[in-house]
Design a protein that fits this description.
With 466 residues, the protein is of the alpha/beta class. It is built from 14 helices and 19 strands.
């Protein structure tokens, strides 16, 4: 039996395949097997790997009859693996010659279930062919102090989970090694309906369950990002809609795992940190790059809106709107300051309601702009008791008394202070405004920490209730 099984998921990587597999065959540690699982390649990769390695005793070849994604291909590899340890190599990447030796030595020394390397090597420039003697730049993913020696990770579970959720223990699996009997004991496999992020969820369970998790300082994995890579697809509306749905799918998967672990039951704050990871892990690389100063690169926002409607029902428009504007701002896009300080509380309204804004201060003006720019609610005006004094040429502010002759379904009180809001509401009721028309929730208006403290929990609770 080999000591290490190296699993290589293959999909349309014929251009780089030989370089990848040869980098394993050239290892200083030779007690290994290579398991290549083709996930329905259409570029001749399957034929190529058979021609090059079909008679090599160290290489076993398997092919899916239907596409199961990289996670599914890795699961197939796990089913066939015979080694004591499991390592993963993507078919367009490479190993440095001492990779397996370094990981194996650390695993045996510490009796570790997981060996964790903090980063990868990236070729200089856009190289089609990479030799292990080339110059590389080192990318450290982990947001932790760089280690000088091998170190066992603390066994404190909350510490571990928070480190993972904060991306301090980065979630890739191809620069790590896992003991096979450990994965089997805890039934740890890859999610097949998630991309990207299936590897981070795999690692989540490893971080939680491993008794001995060793972090090493060595960086040895050569990560190549060709233009054809599945992680560099066109960032259009359809793609971003898929990733929006992916966030919810990841949260659902993580909730399932946490639900099976009693340790999480009395730790709601830790649970929320885990769920927030599903958003953080998807944001920067897979969504924000899809925006420029005018919005989406390509495609209709309707595709994204529909995803949120399917997921969140009545809260769908609120979810979509905040998602869209949040990423525009995070990507440095957007031609106005809209949404930077205040977020319109869509969750307080029903679609189509004719809405008046009360208050033409900073928050009221921001809400009125947002109200005019969307098609969820119907703007019915903005009023302020200082209407005659205000110089707001862009805002047709009307006196409060005009409410008596305005036709509206809802009135948003655009003040943050609760006492002031109560006083406004009491005065308006005396004017004859029906109490059921009022909307106010001042603690949700400001953007600061809104994403974590209100928006995210609201959508999670709505999604779980469906």
């Amino acid at each position: 039996m080999p000591e290490i099984s190296v699993i290589v998921p293959l999909y349309n990587a014929g251009k780089y395949l030989q370089e990848a597999i040869d980098s394993v065959l050239a290892q200083t540690f030779q007690d290994f097997e290579i398991i290549v699982v083709d996930d329905c390649s259409t570029d001749g990769s399957w034929e190529l790997v058979n021609r090059l390695y079909g008679e090599n005793d160290k290489v076993s070849l398997y092919r899916h009859e239907s596409n199961k994604t990289a996670g599914g291909a890795r699961n197939t590899g796990l089913e066939h693996a015979k080694g004591k340890y499991i390592a993963f190599l993507d078919s367009d990447d490479l190993y440095m010659p001492e990779t397996l030796e370094i990981m194996y030595r650390a695993a045996e020394k510490y009796g570790a279930e997981v060996v964790h390397s903090p980063g990868c090597l990236i070729p200089q420039g856009d190289q089609e062919h990479v030799a292990t003697t080339d110059d590389f730049r080192t990318i450290i993913f982990d947001d932790m102090p760089i280690l000088e020696k091998e170190t066992l990770l603390s066994v404190d579970k909350e510490y571990r989970v928070r480190q993972w959720a904060g991306r301090k223990l980065y979630g890739t699996i191809w620069n790590k090694m896992f003991r096979k009997d450990f994965l089997e004991e805890y039934r740890i496999k890859f999610e097949t309906g998630i991309w990207p992020g299936e590897d981070a969820i795999f690692l989540f369970r490893c971080v939680f369950y491993a008794k001995r998790y060793v972090c090493i300082p060595d960086v040895f994995y050569i990560y190549r990002r060709p233009a054809t890579s599945t992680t560099r697809k066109k960032r259009d509306a359809k793609f971003i809609a898929m990733q929006a749905k992916n966030i919810a799918t990841k949260i659902e998967a993580l909730d399932t795992y946490m639900g099976d672990i009693p340790w999480f039951s009395d730790k709601p704050e830790v649970q929320d940190k885990v769920r927030e990871f599903a958003i953080i892990d998807t944001d920067s690389s897979f969504i924000q790059k899809g925006y420029h100063s005018q919005g989406l690169l390509e495609g209709s926002e309707a595709e994204i809106r529909q995803v949120f409607k399917d997921m969140y029902g009545e809260q769908g428009y609120f979810a979509y709107w905040y998602f869209h504007h949040y990423h525009l701002l995070k990507a440095g896009a957007g031609g106005t300051n809209e949404g930077q300080s205040y977020i319109f509380p869509y969750h307080l309204f029903q679609e189509g309601e004719r809405t008046v804004i009360y208050g033409a201060g900073e928050s009221g003006q921001s809400f009125y702009r947002q109200l005019q720019r969307q098609n969820y609610l119907k703007p019915a005006g903005i009023v302020d008791k200082r209407a005659k004094e205000l110089k707001t040429p862009d805002f047709p502010v009307q006196p409060v008394e005009d409410l008596k002759k305005m036709d509206f379904d809802a009135l948003l009180i655009a003040v943050i202070n609760e006492k002031a809001a109560r006083e406004i509401k009491a005065a308006l009721i005396k004017m004859g405004i029906a109490e059921e028309k009022f909307r106010w929730q001042g603690n949700t208006y400001q953007k600061d920490d809104f994403y974590n403290n209100h928006y995210f929990p609201l959508l999670r609770e709505t999604y779980q209730a469906k």
